[in-house]
Amino acid sequence: xxxxxxxxxxxxxxxxxxxxxxxxxxxxxxxxxxxxxxxxxxxxxxxxxxxxxxxxxxxxxxxxxxxxxxxxxxxxxxxxxxxxxxxxxxxxxxxxxxxxxxxxxxxxxxxxxxxxxxxxxxxxxxxxxxxxxxxxxxxxxxxxxxxxxxxxxxxxxxxxxxxxxxxxxxxxxxxxxxxxxxxxxxxxxxxxxxxxxxxxxxxxxxxxxxxxxxxxxxxxxxxxxxxxxxxxx
Length: 233
Fold this sequence. Notes:
Layout: E1 3-4, E2 10-13, E3 16-18, E4 21-22, E5 29-31, E6 34-37, E7 40-42, E8 45-46, E9 53-55, E10 62-65, E11 68-70, E12 73-74, E13 81-89, E14 92-93, E15 99-105, E16 108-109, E17 115-119, E18 127-130, E19 170-176, E20 193-198, E21 211-214, E22 228-231
Parallel strand pairs: 1-5, 2-6, 3-7, 4-8, 5-9, 6-10, 7-11, 8-12, 9-13, 10-13, 11-14, 13-15, 14-16
Antiparallel strand pairs: 17-18, 19-20, 21-22
């Protein structure tokens, strides 16, 4: 869902704005005034300027904190931002070339947020989960954060993350290939497969390509076993 508002200030917290489009300005948000905190604005498009956020003239200011605005597209200028912004702090912005920013503090600019696809990662509404290697993890400002994320997960368990999703920790789970036996010099029938799980929802995430090294215990074995590297699928 996108927003277009004019005479009032938009207050947006713990929200995901994704997959919207405009034939003109402001694919995700078009407004003259807004306070945006711990939100994720991504995968929106505009036919002119401001694929993510477009601020038009008039009364009001836009202040952004603890937020991700990245991977939006505009056909003319300002993929992520277009217009004049009062304050952007402790946020990740993919492209600021279409914006003028009065106060620009502690931001990650031109950085890939490593967002997972929009999906059900817990809670009542869809969100973009953070990849375990995302630079948005632990990059926020606790003083500007709400107690819970969009899903209802606790934010204040250390330094907060940027965006609407607060990572609760990641683990690995075996999805195939466990408890097999085979003869010497013969491959197992099924490859050992591992998936990444985020603690809050406790179900596999759509992540591939993470390498895991297994360190087998040699005690009691009748062979000398070396380390084995797996890759998530």
